[in-house]
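Suppose you are handed a protein chain with no further information: no name, no annotation, nothing but its sequence. What can you learn? This example shows the usual starting point.
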Amino acid sequence: MRIPALLTSLTLAGLLLSPTAHAATPFQAADLTRAAAYSQAHRGDAVLVWQAGREVFAQAQGSFDLNAPHVLASGSKTFGGLLAVALQDAGLLRLDERAADTLTEWRGDARRDITVRQLLNFTSGLLGNVGHPIPTLNRDLSGAALAAQAVAPAGTVFAYGNAHLAAFAELVRRRTGQEPEVALQARVLDALDVHPTWARDRAGHADLAGGARLSAREWGRVGQLLLQNGQWQGRAVLSAAGLGECRQGSAALSVYGLNLWLNVPTNGTLDSGDTVPVAALNLKGDRLMPSQPVSVFMAAGAGNQRLYAGTR
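A reasonable first move is to predict its three-dimensional structure. Written in structure tokens, the prediction is:
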């Protein structure tokens, strides 16, 4: 028997699921206490652990409130993949359709070959980043992404950054007539009672790549939805097949799916042409978390935001 387990940590580095990942036993109190001590020693704000669908440990640290919104930084990127699955489930887009079918500005050059999937797994061939890293200092992130030229053929190189999701955000606007965070809220997050606040550029657009703020418990519910293959309180919020796509890496980088980091071997796909935040991920060897099963995955952001999910 495998027990689904989830660990959410805010401003915390290095916490993993128990090394006894396939055992059917619950987490031990001593292990949870050590995890919390590690967090506190590394200036953590919060540690939250769910197992078998329920919260088994929660600790706020310092002056932090577990129910207060916390910046997710690039942990926000996971919402792009969830939104894409929701729209594919609704028949409003296909992951393997060409983005230029909607982003018509791209039809006349190499960007015509970019698919929606490649925008989400960061292999579109665009430069990773556009504009300023602080969203409010940008006039229009989506406009900058649409103007960015391809620097590599689609599907060949991984480039981490905000450009791909800024372009995806404009695709969603044109396809649905809604802002992407509005569509995400209605199609996914309302069911979970999760309500992020968003940093925005000067055009008023939410930054899907790094602009979300959530409480630890809200982020935990997002992780639980992933563990439950899209099911929430007896309702299919997202399809299991669609979420399965999120846990598939690319030929350019096997350890990154649709805005989730995967604990599978790199299999030679990490090379000098890829732009990967290796230092932030602490990648050593061929997997992100060598002591953990390949089924473990995570969302991650600057400042050591981490959401780990898997079975034990």
